[in-house]
Amino acid sequence: MAIQAEPFVVNVGPQHPSTHGVFRMKLTLDGERIVDADMVIGYLHRSIEKLAEERTWTQNIPFMDRTDYLAAMTGNQAIVLAAEKMMAIEPPERAKYIRVIMAELQRFASHCMAVGTFVNDCGAWQTPLMYMLREREKVLDLFEMVCGARVTLNYMRIGGVAFDLPDEFVPACRQLIEEDFPRRMEEYARLLIGNEIILARSRGIGVLPAELAIASSCSGPMLRGSGVAWDIRKADPYDVYDRMDFEIPVGYQGDCYDRFLVRFEEMQQSIAIVKQALDALPGGPEKVDIPLAPMAPPGEQYSRVESPRGELGIYAVSDGSPNPYRFHIRSPSYINLSALKQMTVGHTVADAVVILGSIDIVVGEVDR
Amino acid sequence: MIALEHFYDARDLQNIVEAVTDGMNEQLAYVVAALLGCLAILGFVGVTAIINIWIERRLIARMQVRLGPNRVGPMGLLQPVADALKLIQKEVLVPRAGDRFIFLVAPLLVFIPPMFTFGVLPFGENMAFVDLDVAVLFVIAFSSITTLLIFMAAWSSNNKYALFGAMRVIAMLVSYEVPLVLAAMGPVIFAESMSLQDIVEFQKDNWTLLLLIQPLAFVIFMLSATAEINRSPFDLAEAESEIVAGYLTEFSGMKWGLFYAVELVNALTASGIAATLFLGGWWFFGLEEYVPGWMIVIGKIYLFYFVFMWFRGTLPRLRMDQLMSFAWKYLLPLALLNVLIAGVQSTLWARNDWDEAVAFPIFGLINVGLIGLLALAFGRLLASSMAEAPRRAHLGAQLGEIYRSPA
Q: Most buried of A11, A140, A159, A360, CB within 10 angstroms?
């Protein structure tokens, strides 16, 4: 005889250790099994898109640090590429290489957090997260060396980057990516990949079929974890990615474990890209001279980069003034969340947390 | 003052009790001895609970490449004191929709069962507060009462997360109590007594550790005990990343502190029982001639406590249904098998009057071989379901293509 019970509604969040910020999942449960999931967002809405309309293009760069605060460099890259596309400015070669180095280091740091919090959500009490934070700190040290900031960097500029690399950057970076990181990554691979408990918790959980992933416009590791080989760096190369040699890692099943594996592999690909960019780093100026408040000709443009979370697009309309007329951010975290309901229904509360961890959202970017 | 002829005679609590109660009439002596014993247990538990906070935080910090508390006092030793002072100052919030009385009384009651457990734990040849004939049964009965008190706390706080925690605790109690009891049966069968003192004496008389004769029982006991005391990787009742803090969600101030302390004390009791059942308690191959028995017990307790901390620092958490199937499908059959083996071996040994010096090493070897075989078989079983799990994401993908499982 089955026990008939009222549906049990639990609000996971906005104040919850595993919602990665102030995201709220409204779960309808039958026992511990989820029968319905609702997402409530907007707790971190700061109306960045509207604020951006009141500021010049250069003044908007710091906003992009604060949307995706775990990957400020790729946010910077997205807005400067958008502005350059609108104003038809070509940055010098050296700046392009520096941007690629920074973006890949940022991807490594962001995936460190993603992997660490994912294993944390699987229930490992802080230990993997702390190890991953250690690696992230090393990358943040490099950023501090270059621009003085660690998290909200505000480093890239329209037509280049704010400062040239200091002399000590290249040896320090080489030391990290050629010696420290490969050794540590090997250690982490031994510890985490194939771990029975992580496998038990993430294999076959939160399966996102490739068709659903495409239909819900997922991008980044979410899409690649489902087996779709799609990467903006290859599909629509920007800066100097067309000269870099790297692979697109894909998963087969689209479960949490595949997404975790894809992120893990992307970290290694990032190391390889940084190595190539350092080898080919040309001399010359790091930026071109542009006016303080450059004006874009009237028109509209969509430009996109591959942020650690997926396709970070900026759709901007200009009316010829120094400010953008409309500034829309296509944030990957927000769009990746759209398949959450299909992924969680049928699993348990404990799985919902793991699934959310494997999506790797940054609520600052979801709500903007 | 016959019992305390030398100052070092004070190492044994029995001697102190005899010295104090010397010359008193019988009733008074009984009361004084009982009070002294109570004070000793309370003191031991209180002090170790405070020290363990520091040990656990420092040790896990080292495992997590952090420093841990190092500001208050030398090496952060006074951190637990500072924490306790802070907790005492904090307001205890009671949920308006909760059951106020039960909510306030649960954290006090939850401290009682581990104290009772320490009452039967032998700390030395004459240093058990009571040497019960049914000590093993007593310990198991009292350790399950903790679970009911946790359920009281959770139910009275009228919180959905707390309810999750409570339901998980009850489910875990129901499933892990069974293998725990069956595993504790192994030593009991060999010692032919349920008294913890007798089990230690058995190991002493036969110059062996029951860990060596009953390795399978030991492994099952440790795993079930970890679940029983809600420690990682079985800490589902307060799984931070899933249900906030489980049954502790609504507790604040010293009420929360009491639960936290009880959690540490419970780990200590479980370690104590494991040390007594499987590692010889206060006896350790003649070492007790030179070192007071209670020091040996405490050393063994911390050995097991370290293992619990190690678990916590390294292992991810299992899901509820996986935990249940682990208990019922894996631990329970093994525990039953172990009881059968222990019964057969002890019967053979008793009936045939075999020499202990020959029989026990052979039993030990057989059982170690058996556990190795079973572990291997279980590994195979696990591996068969994990065979398709890739170790690396697929590389060399062509842009725009969709990859599917090769199977």
A: A360
What band does B4 get if pLDDT is binned at 50, 70 and 90? low
Q: How many CB atoms lie within 10 A of CB B294?
A: 20
Cα torsion angle, A130, A134, A137, A139, sign: negative
Interchain pair A194, B316: CB under 8 A = no
pLDDT at A273: 92
Is the separation of the CB atoms in B114 and B269 below 8 Å?
yes
From residue B155, give the alpha-carbon distance in Å to each of A17, B106, B149, B250.
Answer: 22, 10, 10, 11
Burial label, B141 (beta-carbon count in 10 A; 0-12, 13-18, 19+): middle
SS3 A274: helix
Report the pLDDT value the prediction gives residue B388, as an integer from 0 to 100: 66
Beta strands in A31-99 (DSSP E): 33-40
- Pick the residue of B161, B308, B322, B394 with the most A CBs within 10 A to test the interface with A by mutation: B394
What is the average pLDDT across B313-318?
84
Confirm or reject contact between B397 and chain A (CB < 8 A): yes
Compute the nearest-CA separation of B314 from chain A (Å). 7
Q: Which amino acid is at A115?
A: V
Interface of A with B in 11-30 (CB under 8 A): 16-18
B402 contacts A227? CB cut-off 8 A: yes
Does residue A278 surpass a pLDDT of 50?
yes
- Nearest CB to A261 within list B240, B318, B390: B390
Q: How many Å lie between the alpha carbon of A165 and the closest alpha carbon of chain B?
A: 30
What is residue A316's three-state secondary structure?
strand
By C-alpha distance, the chain B residue nearest A118 is: B241
Cα–Cα distance, A70 to A106 (Å, whole number): 8
| Residue B240 identity | E
DSSP characters over A203-224: TTSS---HHHHHHTT--THHHH
Q: Do A125 and B232 touch (CB under 8 A)?
A: yes
CA atoms within 13 A on the CB side of A202: 35
Q: Within a 10 A sphere around the Cβ of B361, how many other Cβ atoms?
A: 13
pLDDT in tens, A25-78: 888 888 778 888 888 888 888 888 889 888 888 888 998 888 888 888 999 999
Determine the residue among A29, A125, A126 to mutate to test chain B binding: the one whose Cβ has the most chain B Cβ atoms within 10 Å: A125
Q: Which of A317, A363, A319 is CA-nearest to residue A337?
A: A363
Please check whether residue A265 is in contact with residue A140, taking contact to mean a CB–CB distance below 8 angstroms: no
d(CA A123, CA B317): 4
At residue A23, the 3 state secondary structure works out as coil
Q: Are A226 and B403 in contact (CB under 8 A)?
A: no
Tell me which chain A residues have a C-beta less than 8 angstroms from the C-beta of B242. Answer: 18, 123, 349-350, 353
Query: What DSSP string describes B269-323?
Result: HHHHHHHHHHH-TT--TTGGGTS-HHHHHHHHHHHHHHHHHHHHHHPPPPPHHHH
Average of per-residue pLDDT values in chain B: 82
| SS3 track for B193-248 | CCCHHHHHHHHHHCCCCHHHHCHHHHHHHHHHHHHHCCCCCCCHHHCHHHHCCHHH
B64, B164, B403 member nearest A252 (Cβ)? B403
**pLDDT tens digits for range B328-379:** 888 888 888 888 888 888 888 878 777 777 777 787 788 888 878 877 777 6
Residue A304 β-bridge partners: A313
Residue B1 pLDDT exceeds 50: no
- Kindly indicate whether the ipTM for this predicted assembly is greater than 0.85, answering yes or no: no
Instruction: Give residue-wise pLDDT tens across range B218-238.
Output: 888 988 888 888 777 777 777
- Minimal Cβ distance to A348: which of B320, B398, B401: B320
